[in-house]
C-alpha cells in the first residue's frame, strides 16, 4: 500500500470549500487536487461544526482504489469528526463525538421506536450517498433498536441486496442517537462489481439440496446440549460449506492466505494464562498455604515433570517461571445454596514457561499447562516468535513422513492423555507447509459413534520429529445414551433434504490461475445454509432440533392481562435482567431482597450479579450495603427496600442519606422511617413512585415482583 499523508490547515480547507462542488461519481486523483475534491464532496453532504477548526488527512491507495481519510477536531480535542471517502465520492465511514455527551442522568428508554430509527438512518444515507438505498431494502434491515439503557445510541444495519438476493455481505451499519435520531457513526462495505450473474442461472433448490448434501453429507455423532448427557444425532458434516449455485462445486469464498499456526497457538496460549500472560504469580508463602489447603504440587515438582516430557526437548531448555491460577471452567455460579451440587472443589492450573536457544535467531518458547494438584498434562505449546520458515530455512529439504509423525503423536498421547485408546481414533493428520509440521487429531468414540466435543491434538515437527504442541479436551463425567434403535442414514438424509433451508446469494469466488500463486477474484451465485436452520436430526425420533428462536422475543407465560404486563415486557425488550422462575415471572409474589438487588443492579451494570446476591461482602463492594446493615437475601422486601436499592443502584446513596434537608409530600410522610425519608423523596422526584390512591407511600408494605418492575420502568420512562 502506498500511503501519502498530508496535513492541511484552516486556510487550505477554506480554499477547498470555496472551490466549488464536485459531482458524485467522478474519480478523484491521489494527489492534492483529488484530496481537495474529496473534502468538497464531504462538506457538500455533511455539516462540520464551526468549532471543529483543526483538520488532518491521509490518502491511502491500493489495488481497490484511493481512500481519503479526513478528520476535523476542536483545538482542545474535546470534539472530533472522522470521515473516509473513496475516489468516487462515496462516504465509507463517519463518526462524530464530543466529550461528556453521556451521563448517568441520560439513562432511559429510547424515545424513538425501531421504525423511526430506520427512517432517520435511511434519510441520512439518501443525502450522503444517493442511490445506495435502492439496494438496501428496509424489510431486510437488522435493527437492534433501543440499544442499551446505558447508552444514548442504538445500532442498526442495512443489508445490501442485488436482484433480490444478498450481495457479498455488503451493507451499511449505523450508530444513531435513540432519542434525537442523529447519526453518530456509520461504516459501509460497498463493492463495485460489473460482472454480476443473473439469479436465473442458479440451479433450482431441489437439485441444489442434492448437490449440497454431496459436499456436506450427514454424519452420525454423539452430541451434548447440556454438558451432562450425549445423545446420537445426525448433523451436516460441514454446515458452513458455500456451494457454487451454477456448477454445484464447493466455492472458495475467502481469499487464501498463509497462516502461522505456531504464532496463533502462542497467542491463544498467552491469552489463556500461559507464559506470556500477565497473570501475577503467587508468592511462596501463598503457595505454601495453598499446598496445605488444596494439596497443590510444588513448583519444583511441576518443573521436573515438565522437563521430563518425552520427545519435547524441554530437558535442555531454559526454565523461565511458573504461575498458578484458578481454573474458571470448574467454577459454577448457579444457585445461591452453599450446598448446591453445581459447586465443585476449587481446581488450580499451573503454567510453566521455557525458552529454547535463547538470544539466538532460533529462539523458541514453550508453555506447559497442567493440573496443579494432580500434575496431569493439559496442554503443551511451543512456538517461534518470528517467521517459522525464516527460523528454520533447512525445512525446505525435509523428507516428510506422515506415518512416522502419526506414530510419534500416538506414542506421546498414550503416555500423557490417561485415556483408554479403545475410545480414540485418528480423525486426520495434516501437514502444514509453513511450519513444516504434522497436526494429528484424535477423536473420541463411544458405541462406535464419534463425539466431536472431545478430542486430543498433537503437532509433530516434520524434521526433528519432536512434539511441538499438545492439547486435550475431554468430558470426564459425560453420560452417553444407548445407540440402539436409530433411524437409518437414508431416512435421515430424506429429512435433511426436506429441511435443508438453502439460501441463494452473491458471494466472492477465488480461484488460482493456472495452479499458480495468483488468485482470481470474481462474483458468483452461491447456495449456503440460512441463519435459521435446524441444528441436528434426533437419531432416534427423526425430529429436527433447532436452538434458534428466529429473533422472536419470548415473555413469561403468567403476565398476560396483568396490570404490569406492559412494564415487564418493556424491561425484557431492553435487556433488563428480571430474576424469574423458568417460564413464569410470578408477578404477584413478594420479591425477596436477593431478587430485588439483582433486578435493581441492572440499572448500575446492565446485568445482575448472577447467583451471588446472597453474599453481603459482594454487595458491600457493589455499594448496595453498609458494614452495619443486616442483609438476608431470602427475606421479603418492602416498598421502602424497593426505593432504597434502586436509588443506591443509581449512585445516589450519599445524597439520599443526608438528614434534615428533605420535604416529602406523601400523605403518610410522618410514618416513613427517618432512614428512608431521603430515598422516598428522591424516588418521588424521579417518578419512581407516586403513592397510592390516597397519596400514601406505604413504606412497610410488602413489595411484589410486579411493583418492583414498575418502579424500575418508571425511572427509565421519566
Description:
The chain folds into four domains: about 1-190, no CATH class; about 210-255 and about 485-545, no CATH class; about 260-480, no CATH class; about 565-715, no CATH class. Helix content is about 25%, strand content about 25%. The chain is built from 18 helices and 25 strands. Strands 1, 2, 3, 4, 5, 6, 7, 8, 9, 12, 22 and 23 form a twelve-stranded mixed sheet that branches. A hairpin with a 2-residue loop joins strand 18 and strand 19. Helix 11 (about 565-575) packs across helix 18 (about 705-715), helix 12 runs parallel beside helix 15 and helix 15 (about 640-650) packs across helix 17 (about 675-685). Residues about 1-25, about 260-280, about 330-345, about 385-395 and about 605-615 have low confidence and may be disordered.
Count of DSSP H/I helices: 18
Record field, number of beta strands: 25
Uncertain spans: 1-25, 258-279, 328-345, 387-397, 607-614
The average pLDDT value, as a whole number, equals 82
Can you tell me the number of structural domains? Answer: 4
Distance between the termini: 52 Å
Largest sheet: 12 strands, mixed
The Cα radius of gyration reads 31 Å
Judging from the principal axes of the Cα atoms, what is the shape? globular
Strand residue percentage: 25-35%
Helix share bin: 10-25%
**Assembly status:** single chain
Estimated structural class? alpha+beta
Amino acid at each position: 500500500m502506498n500511503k501519502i499523508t498530508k496535513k492541511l490547515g484552516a486556510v487550505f480547507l477554506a480554499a477547498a470549500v470555496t472551490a466549488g462542488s464536485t459531482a458524485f461519481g467522478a474519480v478523484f486523483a491521489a494527489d492534492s487536487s483529488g484530496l481537495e475534491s474529496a473534502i468538497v464532496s464531504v462538506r457538500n453532504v455533511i455539516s462540520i461544526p464551526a468549532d471543529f477548526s483543526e483538520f488532518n488527512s491521509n490518502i491511502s491507495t491500493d489495488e481497490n482504489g484511493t481512500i481519503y481519510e479526513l478528520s476535523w477536531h476542536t483545538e482542545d480535542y474535546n470534539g472530533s469528526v472522522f470521515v473516509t471517502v473513496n475516489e468516487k465520492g462515496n462516504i465509507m465511514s463517519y463518526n462524530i463525538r464530543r466529550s461528556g455527551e453521556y451521563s448517568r442522568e441520560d439513562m432511559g428508554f429510547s424515545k424513538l421506536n425501531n421504525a423511526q430509527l430506520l427512517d432517520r438512518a435511511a434519510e441520512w444515507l439518501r443525502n450522503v450517498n444517493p442511490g445506495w438505498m435502492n439496494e438496501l431494502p428496509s424489510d431486510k434491515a437488522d435493527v437492534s433498536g433501543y440499544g442499551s439503557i446505558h447508552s444514548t445510541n442504538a445500532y442498526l444495519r442495512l443489508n445490501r441486496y442485488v436482484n433480490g438476493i444478498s450481495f457479498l455481505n455488503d451493507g451499511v451499519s449505523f450508530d444513531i442517537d435513540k432519542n434525537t435520531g442523529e447519526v453518530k457513526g456509520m461504516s459501509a462495505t460497498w463493492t463495485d462489481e460489473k460482472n454480476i450473474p443473473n439469479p436465473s442461472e442458479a440451479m433450482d433448490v431441489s437439485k441444489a439440496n442434492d448437490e449440497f448434501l454431496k459436499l456436506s453429507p450427514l454424519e452420525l455423532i454423539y452430541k451434548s446440549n447440556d454438558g451432562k448427557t450425549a445423545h446420537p444425532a445426525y448433523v451436516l458434516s460441514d454446515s458452513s460449506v458455500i456451494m457454487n449455485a451454477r456448477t454445484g462445486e464447493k466455492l472458495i469464498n475467502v481469499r487464501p492466505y498463509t497462516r502461522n499456526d505456531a504464532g496463533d497457538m502462542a497467542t491463544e496460549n498467552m491469552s489463556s494464562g500461559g507464559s506470556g500472560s500477565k497473570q501475577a504469580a503467587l508468592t511462596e508463602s501463598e503457595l505454601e498455604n495453598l499446598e496445605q489447603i488444596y494439596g497443590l504440587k510444588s513448583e519444583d515438582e511441576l518443573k521436573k515433570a515438565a522437563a521430563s516430557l518425552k520427545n519435547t526437548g524441554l530437558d535442555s531448555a531454559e526454565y523461565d517461571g511458573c504461575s498458578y491460577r484458578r481454573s474458571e471452567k470448574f467454577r459454577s455460579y448457579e444457585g445461591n445454596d452453599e450446598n448446591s451440587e453445581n459447586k465443585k472443589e476449587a481446581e488450580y492450573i499451573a503454567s510453566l514457561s521455557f525458552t529454547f536457544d535463547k538470544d539466538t535467531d532460533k529462539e523458541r518458547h514453550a508453555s506447559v499447562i497442567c493440573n496443579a494438584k494432580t500434575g496431569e498434562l493439559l496442554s503443551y505449546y511451543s512456538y517461534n516468535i518470528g517467521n517459522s520458515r525464516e527460523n528454520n530455512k533447512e525445512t525446505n529439504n525435509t523428507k516428510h513422513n506422515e506415518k512416522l509423525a502419526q506414530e510419534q503423536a500416538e506414542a506421546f498421547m498414550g503416555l500423557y492423555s490417561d485415556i483408554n485408546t479403545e475410545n480414540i481414533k485418528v480423525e486426520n493428520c495434516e501437514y502444514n507447509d509453513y511450519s513444516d509440521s504434522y497436526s494429528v487429531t484424535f477423536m473420541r468414540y463411544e458405541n462406535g459413534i464419534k463425539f466431536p466435543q472431545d478430542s486430543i491434538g498433537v503437532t509433530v515437527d516434520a524434521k526433528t520429529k519432536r512434539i511441538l504442541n499438545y492439547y486435550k479436551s475431554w468430558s470426564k463425567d459425560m453420560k452417553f445414551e444407548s445407540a440402539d434403535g436409530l433411524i437409518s442414514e437414508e431416512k435421515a438424509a430424506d429429512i435433511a433434504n426436506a429441511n435443508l433451508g438453502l439460501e441463494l446469494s452473491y458471494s466472492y469466488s477465488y480461484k488460482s490461475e493456472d495452479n499458480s500463486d495468483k488468485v482470481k477474484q470474481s462474483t458468483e451465485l452461491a447456495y449456503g445454509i440460512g441463519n435459521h436452520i435446524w441444528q441436528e436430526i434426533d437419531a432416534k425420533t427423526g425430529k429436527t432440533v433447532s436452538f434458534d428462536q428466529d429473533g422472536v422475543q419470548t415473555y413469561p407465560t403468567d403476565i398476560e392481562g396483568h396490570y404490569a404486563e406492559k412494564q415487564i415486557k418493556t424491561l425484557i425488550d431492553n435487556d433488563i435482567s428480571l430474576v424469574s422462575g423458568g417460564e413464569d415471572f410470578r408477578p404477584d409474589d413478594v420479591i425477596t431482597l436477593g431478587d430485588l438487588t439483582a433486578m435493581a443492579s441492572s440499572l448500575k451494570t446492565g446485568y445482575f450479579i448472577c447467583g451471588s446476591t446472597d453474599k453481603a461482602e459482594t454487595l458491600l463492594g457493589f455499594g448496595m450495603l453498609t458494614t452495619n446493615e443486616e442483609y438476608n437475601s431470602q427475606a421479603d422486601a418492602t416498598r421502602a427496600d424497593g426505593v432504597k436499592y434502586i436509588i443506591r443502584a443509581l449512585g445516589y446513596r450519599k445524597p439520599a442519606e443526608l438528614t434534615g434537608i428533605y420535604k416529602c409530600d406523601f400523605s403518610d410522610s410522618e410514618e416513613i422511617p427517618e432512614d428512608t425519608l431521603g430515598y422516598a423523596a428522591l424516588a418521588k422526584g424521579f417518578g419512581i413512585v407516586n403513592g397510592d390512591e390516597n397519596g400514601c407511600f406505604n413504606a412497610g408494605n410488602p413489595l411484589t415482583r410486579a411493583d418492583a418492575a414498575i418502579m424500575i420502568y418508571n425511572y427509565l420512562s421519566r
